[in-house]
């Protein structure tokens, strides 16, 4: 578990080593695919995020938690360049997004997919058309090939083939999430950003969605940045959890490690009435 006030290397802020290197913690070798440093974001009033540091390691499923309004969605949008920063820098795959040419920025943008908290799909397009949007935008393929590729992605996320011709209003919540995931995966990204992916799903649908994400990570080698309030997802899915609060990353660690952190909100969240049901020892030996 790392304190967010340390840099990954223990160096004072501003003296970090360059990003294109691997990071050792204990006997593990980790490579940061995302590195945010000194991020400050606001919308006119007091900043929502202030001087925030975050690393995301290649291949991990990172859970991002924090009270409502702490800035989880803002952080996600800031990392992918949709929210303006007042300060700080974001590096993805060792590249500072601010320094890229529009063409290079567009290319690197193809290496991640996003499932947004709101407005997952275009309501006037069928599932197939929705999934084909990024394909048509970024790849020079014929319409037939674009549609074939979109159908493959629809299959990949476990939707029946007939879902392709349906409109979002004709789908269940779980199917909409899967279709949105298919669109996020359309360009074979290295990273997927998921904002509350299981919100609104019944427990079985949520568990199945979790399983799908995990399988995709294991088979495709994805890195997953997942904002969630879903304790089941946090316990069963994540390799590491980042806790947002007071405009920054309060702490990061595994679910088990965070249970021991002496902080009122973290205690309430990870050892409160709902979380206290999880017997991690039993789960690990089951
Ligand atoms: N575009 C915007 N303009 C103005 N304020 C914004 C904007 N986007 C977010 N905010 C504000 O930033 C704060 C953090 O919002 P954010 O959506 O990141 O919260 P969150 O942690 O994702 O919450 P939740 O768990 O409810 O989704 C809120 O006070 C919100 O009103
Ligand atoms: Mg949010």
From TrEMBL:
Region of interest called Disordered, as start-end residue ranges on this chain: 1-29
Biased composition (Basic and acidic residues): 14-29
Record-linked Pfam families: ABC_tran (PF00005)
Record domain ABC transporter: where: 34-271
Keyword Transport: yes
GO molecular function: ATP binding; ATP hydrolysis activity
Keywords noted in UniProt: ATP-binding, Nucleotide-binding, Transport
Entry's family note: Belongs to the ABC transporter superfamily.
This protein's name: Putative ABC transporter ATP-binding protein
């Amino acid at each position: 578990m790392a304190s967010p006030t340390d840099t990954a290397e223990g160096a004072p802020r501003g003296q970090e080593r360059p990003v294109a290197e691997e990071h050792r913690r204990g006997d593990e070798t980790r490579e940061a695919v995302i590195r945010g440093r000194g991020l400050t974001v606001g919308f006119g009033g007091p900043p929502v995020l202030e001087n925030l540091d975050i690393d995301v390691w290649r291949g991990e499923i990172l859970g991002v938690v924090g009270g409502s309004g702490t800035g989880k969605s803002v952080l996600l949008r800031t990392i992918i360049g949709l929210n303006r920063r007042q300060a700080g820098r974001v590096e993805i795959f060792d590249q500072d997004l601010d320094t890229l040419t529009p063409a290079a920025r567009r290319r690197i943008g193809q290496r991640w997919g996003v499932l947004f908290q709101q407005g997952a799909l275009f309501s006037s397009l069928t599932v197939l058309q929705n999934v084909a949007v990024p394909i048509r935008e970024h790849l020079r393929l014929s319409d037939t090939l674009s549609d074939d590729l979109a159908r493959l992605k629809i299959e990949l996320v476990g939707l029946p083939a007939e879902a392709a011709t349906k409109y979002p209003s004709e789908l269940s919540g779980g199917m909409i999430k899967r279709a949105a995931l298919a669109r996020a995966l359309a360009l074979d990204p290295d990273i997927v950003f998921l904002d509350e992916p299981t919100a609104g799903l019944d427990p079985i649908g949520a568990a199945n969605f979790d399983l799908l994400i995990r399988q995709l990570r294991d088979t495709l080698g994805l890195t997953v940045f997942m904002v969630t309030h879903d304790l089941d997802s946090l316990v069963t899915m994540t390799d590491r959890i980042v806790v947002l609060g007071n405009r920054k990353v309060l702490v990061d660690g595994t679910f088990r490690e965070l249970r021991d952190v002496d902080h009122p909100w973290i205690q309430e969240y990870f050892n409160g009435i709902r979380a206290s049901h999880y017997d991690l020892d039993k789960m690990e030996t089951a």
